[in-house]
From TrEMBL:
The keyword Signal applies. Residues 112-126 have a biased composition (Gly residues). This is Uncharacterized protein. PANTHER family: ENTEROTOXIN (PTHR35204:SF1), YALI0A21131P (PTHR35204). Keywords: Signal. Residues 108-159 are annotated as: Disordered. Residues 1-18 form the signal peptide.
Length: 521
């Protein structure tokens, strides 16, 4: 009751002017980097989401057209996996998986698949493969490419090898390419590699030419001593540029072949999903550290990221920008690579703090809360930032906006762009909540009724703009289920738009249709 009286006083003060207050200039320092800040603010929601989803299988699968790069590092001692047809230690450039199940898929006989590790040629979704499916039988085919039917072949009967490697030094020169960047699709998942880094256009785009892509990326990164490129598909992986540098070869166990008994693995894709599900919210184990302060994102630039395919306008593309625009961004990536490691701001942690405070409360306010619950919840969220001795709403909005951002000590120019983006998101949340609060406390409302539409619409419009992948999560699934979202090369359109808990039967049924999400037409 005390609060209610005070709030009414508060509402009398400066409220309407406060709501329209533009984003405040940084309280934390002033950027020297002029160009880009307006783009960073304009694309604030996308940059926020890229930071939040980085190195997470979940968000990278849903917002699959990554537009950003980050430097990343790994400590000594990290175990990584590679599936192939031979016992010999890999030389030169190849693929390494962070998850066992990912690499096991590639541990096939010579004709079971082509050479290469996760994502390698002949890997999932290679040219001419049938649509992704979930049965282990068609897995066999899916990974088989054109030689798949040669089951009588000696090599195929033998099965391949699972190699394990271990980093034997700190690996500090990795470039993380965000989104579903190892997904060989024409939806735009490869734009940042092929168009931006490799300057390829139209017919020269290799699409499935993974070996060529890997070699070109490594050649491009060589002047900067790049050890490899971290990308995501069904599992997070690394294109490792030189296997004889930075890795100890630990083991090469032969896989069971067609004739080996007692090794039935009928839950193939289901178990693969279990492995990925464990990484939905992060790769875990401290295996990769992202240097957020080195982020270079297409969202920082005045580039036209509109998708020419108007049916997928929500997906950003790099098809419209000019060569010089792309060249300028490529130069900035190269400038970041030429730097020695900076002191990184843990921007993802800040994004997490914001998401975890609001993710459940906003939909509750927008859909379920009665008037009294709405008022009570919004007071929980906002009262903290109000000084009841000085009832100025714009001060309260500023405090609310900057609360979690105060943890950041920005130093690089990229830090200031990320800060501008996160501040835009945080300010939008805080000013929208204060605006909803004004509506709720300025009229007499029946406690048990649902709130006025103008209040809930403010919140639901903001939810649509924020578009957090958190809101697509399945919730807890039963022990015999996994939360299925479309992850290249798996999943249907329905799995992309409405991820859901599925048991092994349901996963197979969905995967078998002609509705594979990742291939069109
Ligand atoms: C939110 O993101 C999803 C996944 O990329 C997309 O399909 C949807 O259109 C986006 N919604 C809005 C309102 O931008
Ligand atoms: C990128 O490709 C275009 C032709 O498509 C060429 O004119 C330009 O010089 C290339 N840029 C670089 C940096 O190689
Ligand atoms: C941006 O690109 C889209 C798709 O290519 C195009 O339709 C649109 O006209 C472009 N917008 C501007 C402002 O150039
Ligand atoms: C999966 O769930 C469906 C529907 O509830 C059920 O019919 C089916 O038997 C279940 N499969 C397994 C392997 O439990």
């Amino acid at each position: 009751m005390l609060a209610k009286g005070s709030l009414l006083v508060l509402l009398g003060c400066k409220l309407s002017s406060a709501i329209s207050t533009p984003i405040s200039q940084h309280v934390l320092g002033s950027p020297e980097f002029g160009a880009g800040q307006s783009s960073a603010i304009e694309n604030g929601n996308h940059i926020f989401n890229a930071v939040h989803s980085s190195m997470r299988q979940w968000g990278s699968s849903i917002q699959h057209n990554g537009m950003s790069f980050f430097l990343a590092s790994m400590p000594e001692g990290v175990m990584m996996y590679h599936g192939t047809h031979t016992a010999e230690r890999v030389k030169g450039m190849q693929w390494l998986a962070f998850e066992i199940e990912h690499a096991e898929n590639f541990a096939r006989g010579r004709f079971g698949r082509g050479p290469g590790g996760p994502g390698g040629p002949g890997g999932p979704g290679g040219p001419g493969d049938p649509p992704p499916s979930a049965s282990s039988k068609s897995d066999e085919k899916r990974h088989g490419g054109s030689g798949a039917s040669k089951l009588n072949d000696e090599d195929e009967q033998k099965g391949g090898y699972l190699h394990m490697y271990r980093t034997n030094r700190a690996i500090t020169r990795l470039l993380y390419i965000d989104g579903m960047s190892a997904g060989k699709t024409d939806l735009g998942t490869l734009d940042t590699q092929d168009i931006l880094l490799l300057n390829m256009t139209g017919d020269s785009l290799p699409m499935h030419g993974e070996h060529e892509r890997g070699l070109k990326l490594c050649a491009w990164g060589k002047p900067y001593n790049i050890d490899g490129f971290i990308r995501t598909e069904a599992g997070i992986e690394i294109i490792w540029c030189e296997f004889e540098d930075g890795l100890d070869f630990i083991s090469h166990n032969r896989r069971p072949g067609a004739k080996d008994q007692g090794v039935e693995d009928s839950l193939g894709t289901f178990e693969y999903y279990r492995a990925m599900e464990a990484r939905y919210q992060g790769i875990a184990g401290g295996r990769v550290t992202v240097d957020y302060s080195s982020m270079v994102s297409a969202f920082f630039y005045q580039m036209n990221l509109t998708n020419p395919d108007s049916e997928r306008s929500e997906l950003p593309r790099l098809l419209a920008p000019t060569n010089s625009e792309l060249g300028a961004m490529r130069k900035d990536v190269e400038a970041v690579l030429a730097r020695t490691q900076s002191v990184s701001v843990h921007w993802q942690g800040i994004a997490d703090m914001i998401v975890s405070r609001y993710a459940l409360r906003l939909p509750y306010l927008a859909t379920k809360a009665t008037n009294s619950a709405f008022k009570s919840d919004i007071n929980t969220l906002l009262n903290t930032f109000i000084d009841y001795d000085n009832l100025f709403i714009d001060t309260a909005i500023k405090q609310c906006t900057h609360h979690y951002l105060r943890a950041a000590i920005p130093s690089t120019k990229e830090d200031f762009l990320i800060l501008a983006a996160l501040e835009k998101v945080s300010h939008t949340i805080c000013s929208t909540l204060f605006a909803a609060r004004e509506i709720m406390f300025s009229e007499k409302l029946d406690d048990q009724e649902m709130p006025p539409a103008k209040a809930t619409k403010l919140i639901s419009d903001m939810i649509a703009w924020l578009n957090w992948t958190e809101w697509k999560r399945c919730g807890a699934c039963a022990y015999d289920e996994v939360c299925v979202v479309a992850i290249w090369p798996f999943g249907s359109v329905e799995d992309h738009t409405h991820p859901s808990c599925q048991n092994s039967t349901q996963l197979q049924v969905r995967g078998h249709g002609g509705d594979g999400y990742w291939r069109r037409g």
